[in-house]
Specification:
single chain; 226 residues; alpha+beta; seven-stranded mixed β-sheet; five-stranded antiparallel β-sheet; 12 strands; 34% strand; binds biotin
Amino acid sequence: MTLYHFSELDSTNAECRRRLNAEDRFFVVADVQTAGRGRHGKSFYSPLGGLYMSYAFHPSEGAVSAVGITTYAAVAVTDAIEEITEIRCGVKWINDLFLEGKKVCGILAEAVDEGVILGIGINLVPAAVPDELHSVVGWLGRPDIRDPLAEAIARRLLDYRPGDISHMNAYRSRSIVLGKRVRYPWAGGEREGLAVEIDDSGALHVEGACGRDVLRAGEISLSGIS
Ligand code: BTN
């Protein structure tokens, strides 16, 4: 396993991209990120004390679905956390891990010309988070597990085979969304309904006043958590 460790980086995903032309199947970990990236162009606050890691590879068999690898990673990370700490996180569709109503981990898959980059950020300890994140951010409370956790996650990611959907039952079983009322952006507005299914493609099916909507991407909100 090739794993590069840095005390500080702009972003582990960015570092993977710089290396991906020349290398395949490697990991990058940083103690701190100065320009951590989140989904939808947001930044990902990455102070000392968290685990910030990325995995980069060249897909050998055709196109890799961002949803496929993201759902795989959500299962891989929840399993790795449970193996090491016995803490069981839940998955908020599509790829946020929650503990006691707070987000403890975000996952960002990027398909670039050079290959696929999967970034994972896990809050291990409480940090001085910006005010607007106070009600949202949680942590595992285990600063001591960073290196074994990175190793346990990496082991699982190396087993990923594009197109394989055998992790989807595990993904569904960790969902904190199924059976709950959710709000979601739809056709320029917002809709609300009951989350009834996550199919094998990772799409979320929601039953509402207008029938069934099938969500393939985007952010949803659950009452009580964002
Ligand atoms: C999200 O919740 O919006 C996704 C956050 C992904 C953050 C991780 S931290 C390691 C990797 N490097 C980045 O710049 N982003 C990802």
